[in-house]
Design brief:
The chain has 331 residues and is α+β, with helices and mostly antiparallel strands. The protein has 2 domains: 3-34 and 183-329, Nucleoside Triphosphate Pyrophosphohydrolase, CATH 3.90.79; 42-168, Nucleoside Triphosphate Pyrophosphohydrolase (Alpha-Beta Complex), CATH 3.90.79.10. It contains 5 helices and 14 strands. The strands form 3 sheets. Strands 8, 9, 10, 11, 12 and 13 form a 6-stranded mixed beta sheet that branches. Strand 5 (96-109) and strand 6 (113-125) form a beta hairpin. It is elongated. It comes from Culter alburnus (Topmouth culter). Belongs to the Nudix hydrolase family. Its cofactor is Mg(2+); Mn(2+).
Length: 331
C-alpha cells in the first residue's frame, strides 16, 4: 500500500474518533512519564437525564461543601480507564448504573487538572437515599433545573446545558475514549489550511492542506505529535506554529477534539493521554490574503495537499460545522 493511501486511512480513523498508535514525538522535552495523582489529575463527571428531562444530582458529603449539590463527579483512580472511572463515580455517589453515550466536553485548568464530562444514560440501580449516606455523598435525586437547589458551584450549569443541546441536536459524532497507551500528555495535531477558490457558491475547488511531520521512524507520512507542557490541551499548536512558521502572521484556531486516547492500566507508564486535535490556520483579519499555506522554516515538517475529494469534503465540513468535541481552557 502506498504512503498516501496509508495516510488517508489513518486520517479517516481519526475523523471517526478512533485512536492510532503513538510511535514518535516531534518535540520531546526532558519529561518523565506522567503518574496519576502525582503530577496529573483527571476528573470525570456525568450529565444524566431521566424521562422527565430532570438531571441527576448528588448531595455533597465533603466538609468544605457539605450539603450542597453537584453532578456526580470525582477523580480517576489508578488502573482505571476514563469510562470505568465515570461508572464507578456515578455508582458510588448516586447509586445507579450508567452507560456513557458520548464525551460531551473536555476542560483543563492549566497543569492542575483535566475534566472529562460525559452524557450518560441510567441503566440500573436505585437512587442513593439519606439512609445510605457515606463519605462519597449524602443522597442523590433528580432535579428539574427550576426548583431551588443550593449548588456547590455554578460551573455545572453549562455542562447540563450542553447535555440538553446534544440530546436535541448532536453537533459532533458520538465520541468515546480509545484504548491506546501513552506515557505523557500530548497532542496529535490535525493542522489544516484552506486556500479559497474564490467561488462563494461552492468549496469544491478549495484546496485543503495538512501539516505533516518528517520525523516519523516508520517512513509513512503522519501528523505531528507534540508534547503538552504549559497546558494540557491548548498550547501545543501555538508552540508548533512558532517553531515551524515563525515569520508568518496567521491566526491559530483550536477547533476542538477529534479523539481521546488513554489506557491507564500500568500506573506511571500508561497514565498519559493523547488528544487528537483539529486546528485551522487562518489569514489574520485585515492582513494580506494568501492562497497557499504559510511557508515552512523547518525541515521537520511539510505541507500535504489533500486531493482525495471525499476525504477533503469530510474535513472541510467538520471545520465549517465545528463538528468536534468542545474544549474549554481555564488557564
Amino acid at each position: 500500500m502506498d504512503s498516501t493511501k496509508i495516510l488517508e486511512e489513518n486520517l479517516e480513523k481519526i475523523l471517526k474518533g478512533e485512536g492510532l498508535e503513538l510511535r514518535e514525538f516531534d518535540s520531546l522535552p526532558e519529561l518523565k512519564p506522567v503518574t496519576l495523582r502525582k503530577n496529573v489529575c483527571y476528573i470525570v463527571s456525568a450529565v444524566i437525564f431521566n424521562s422527565k428531562e430532570e438531571v441527576l444530582m448528588v448531595q455533597e458529603a465533603k466538609r468544605e461543601c457539605y450539603g450542597s449539590w453537584y453532578l456526580p463527579a470525582g477523580r480517576m483512580e489508578e488502573r482505571e480507564s476514563i469510562l470505568e472511572a465515570l461508572q464507578r463515580e456515578v455508582k458510588e455517589e448516586a447509586g445507579i448504573d450508567c452507560q456513557p453515550v458520548t464525551l460531551l466536553l473536555v476542560e483543563e485548568h492549566g497543569p492542575k487538572w483535566v475534566r472529562f464530562t460525559f452524557l450518560a444514560e441510567e441503566t440500573g440501580g436505585t437512587l442513593k437515599t439519606t439512609a445510605e449516606a457515606d463519605a462519597e455523598s449524602l443522597q442523590a435525586q433528580w432535579w428539574d433545573r427550576e426548583s431551588p437547589l443550593p449548588l456547590r458551584a455554578r460551573d455545572i450549569l453549562p455542562l447540563i446545558d450542553a447535555g440538553i443541546k446534544y440530546r436535541q441536536n448532536p453537533w459532533f459524532p458520538v465520541l468515546q475514549p480509545a484504548d491506546f497507551p501513552c506515557h505523557i500528555i500530548c497532542q496529535r495535531l490535525f493542522l489544516t489550511f484552506i486556500s479559497s477558490s474564490g467561488n462563494t457558491d461552492t468549496s469544491d475547488d478549495d484546496c485543503l492542506w495538512l501539516l505533516l511531520s518528517n520525523n516519523n521512524a516508520s517512513s509513512h507520512p503522519s501528523l505531528p505529535i507534540e508534547v503538552s507542557v504549559k497546558t494540557y490541551i491548548t498550547w501545543a499548536a501555538h508552540r508548533l506554529i512558532k517553531e515551524c512558521m515563525p515569520s508568518s502572521s496567521i491566526n491559530v484556531v483550536i477547533c476542538g477534539v477529534l479523539g481521546v486516547q488513554h489506557n491507564g492500566r500500568i500506573p506511571g507508564k500508561t497514565d498519559g493521554i493523547c488528544f487528537n486535535m483539529l486546528v485551522l490556520l487562518e489569514n489574520l483579519e485585515g492582513g494580506p490574503e494568501i492562497n497557499s499555506p504559510p511557508p515552512l522554516e523547518s525541515d521537520s515538517y511539510r505541507w500535504h495537499e489533500v486531493t482525495n475529494q471525499s476525504l477533503k469534503a469530510k474535513i472541510i465540513q467538520r471545520i465549517k460545522d465545528r463538528s468536534v468535541l468542545p474544549i474549554h481552557s481555564q488557564f
